[in-house]
Design goal:
This protein is an alpha/beta fold. It has helices at 15-28, 52-62, 80-93, 108-114, 121-140, 178-187, 198-215, 236-249, 256-262, 272-284, 300-314, and strands at 2-7, 32-35, 67-70, 73-74, 98-103, 144-147, 152-156, 170-173, 190-194, 223-233, 268-271, 289-293.
Length: 315
């Protein structure tokens, strides 16, 4: 199972934190370090938020092995030509270690605060689908024109080309509804979805397989990844303590064991053996990559535990 660390960058993660986490990720043997793309705190009332793509460019220059990427960049933030060019830049700086995560956007308060238009759900998806097409064509076509509802491009030639061929892995994030599945079957390298029960994940995978079949694509060529909060400990009690620290940081008075019990089917939480067993269940459901959402980003011990004990338990 491919395993990456995922950090909610809008929750006060400093540049020094990013460099430290990147080195821990490399030293621990994880496949990659990914981050959210938000400008406004979600978990804490107020927190600093460095720009996602500027962060990735910096990390690309100070790392050697790990893959880097966004989970996910909202279509509402940037023009697709800008996103495509930023991604190619990071692909070159990293020498081909970039994955590009794209989504339709969802956080209304953030849009209002920063002046990003917050369209209704149908309009956001239409914008997202048009952006995906433009980004992929910018990476792969010599010259092209595009005339759509939101964007018009004339004689577009985006140079340089990406380092990775035919382009960086494109990870589309969403809930795997039919129209999303059809878009993914046409363009995506991988679909990323949030942690859910086994039954729900099985149904999402079925929708993707059907969409691939409808598009004439082998379902095995479309990766299926899950992003889920991870609270790992040497023992179950250690994991509960990590949940308690997370709740304290967000000012939540919920009892930690109760929170863990309520989200057991969505989170990876517990002792090493307990979490490894759950990951094996996910593998059997067709999950090809895990993004472990590390919500206590200052807790280096857990990152070391993932690399030192969890990853060996999966091999």
């Amino acid at each position: 199972m491919r395993v990456c660390l995922m950090i909610e960058g809008q929750e006060g993660v400093t540049w020094e934190d990013w460099v430290r986490l990147a080195h821990l990720t490399e030293d621990g043997g994880l496949e990659g370090l990914f981050r959210s793309d938000h400008y406004t705190a979600i978990i804490r009332p107020d927190a600093d938020a460095l720009d996602a793509w500027a962060t990735l460019a910096g990390l690309a220059a100070v790392t050697e092995r790990i893959r880097l990427g966004t989970l996910v960049s909202p279509a509402t933030f940037r023009h697709p030509s800008v996103l495509a060019r930023m991604a190619v830049t990071v692909d070159h700086i990293s020498r081909g270690r970039l994955d590009v995560g794209m989504g339709s956007g969802w956080y209304e308060r953030e849009h209002e605060a920063h002046g990003f238009p917050f369209l209704d759900g149908k309009q956001r998806f239409q914008l997202f689908a048009e952006q995906v097409e433009i980004v992929v064509r910018s990476w792969t076509e010599d010259r092209f024109d595009h005339r759509g509802p939101a964007y018009e491009l004339q004689n577009q030639q985006a140079l340089p080309r990406p380092v990775q061929h035919p382009h960086p892995p494109l990870v589309l994030g969403g809930g795997v509804k039919p129209r999303f599945a059809a878009l993914a079957a046409r363009y995506a390298t991988e679909v990323n979805t949030l942690g859910a029960s086994n039954d729900e994940l099985r149904e999402r995978k079925r929708r993707l397989d059907r969409a691939c079949a409808d598009h004439g694509r082998d379902p095995a060529t479309l990766g299926f990844s899950v992003m889920t909060s991870c609270f790992l400990g040497d023992t179950h009690a250690d994991a509960v303590e990590r949940v308690a620290r997370f709740l304290s940081a967000r000012g939540d008075e919920t009892e930690a064991e109760a929170m863990l019990a309520a989200r057991r089917d969505r989170w990876l939480a517990g002792g090493v053996e307990e979490v490894a067993e759950r990951i094996e269940e996910l593998r059997e459901l067709g999950v090809t990559r895990l993004f472990l959402q590390h919500l206590n980003h200052w807790d280096d011990e857990m990152v070391s535990l993932i690399g030192g004990r969890l990853l060996p338990a999966l091999r």
